[in-house]
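Most newcomers find our protein records easier to grasp once they have seen one. To make this concrete, we reproduce a full record directly below:

===
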Amino acid sequence: MTARGWFLFSLMGVLWGIPYLMIKVAVDGVSPSMVVFVRCALGAALLLPFAIRQGGLAATVRTHWRPMLAFAVIEVIGPWWTLTDAERHLSSSTAGLLIAGVPIVAVLLTRFFGDTEHLGARRLTGLMLGLAGVGVLTVPHLTGGDVRSLAEVAVTVIGYATAPLIMARHLKQVPTLQLIAPVLLLSAIVYAPAAALTWPTTMPSTSVLASLAGLGVICTALAFVVFLELIREVGPTRATVFTYVNPAVAVAAGALFLDERLTTTVLLAFALILAGSFLATATATATAPAGPGRKRTGRGLSRPSRPTPAGPERPSRRVAWSTRQTSRADGRVKSL
């Protein structure tokens, strides 16, 4: 993975590692629908002017409205509410830990719908190491969660794993801002009635307001721009592996702000998660199938075989590649 990819990957681990703490604080003061509405409304208000300034926003929506609608439903409208509602009963760290199952689901989905990325032993080992680290962290935190909350998190995991595939296959050419701004605007409109019906009768506390602002500005507007750029940089499967880092961030936030203890078990899980993330994001080496004109050798695929000419062949010499050449084979061209 490139240096830019690693930077985006690390940034996403933080940007979508802290929302669980903010959601937990916010949902104690306002309804889940209000939390989702504020996140989407703030994100749309910040990003929409820039998307409009780029020009061609209306044409983009008309051309790609079907996959954009699917992305909005599967990435935002459904999962954000189920996750927020689940945190009324689950701790923020538990929610963050469970969401780390996204890469595994993403791998299964790509296998089912036709994988576009090669998964070697190294990446599969990384996925398994990350899952083991998540398991080490998750098991002690699962007490106290009811079936509904766990099912809601499962719905969120499936949505988070599916949406990047839609984006990579059908929306890759759409500019980032012109994709996410309409998605957030639509989501805000969808949740506006429910938010109005559950509007708090008294002013929420400062901590709740600060959490809502952080969710909208940092964890929505900024995070989505970074996320979509990450998908374009490394692909949909590797892009979701940052969710293995989220539990580490979630637990660390709990230790800093909620005085949760960092035990040996937690530190071991951190090591597994980081090692798994490194291996799972390794660049895949695709092996092209043998076909007409190509033959396999002990080292892979040889260069395309060329039929022996019927008559005598003019000598060839190695020259630098230029636009005047008519053909190229390993740097050799026929003398003109």
The longest helix spans residues 206-234. The mean pLDDT is 78. The CA atoms of residues 117 and 300 lie 18 Å apart.
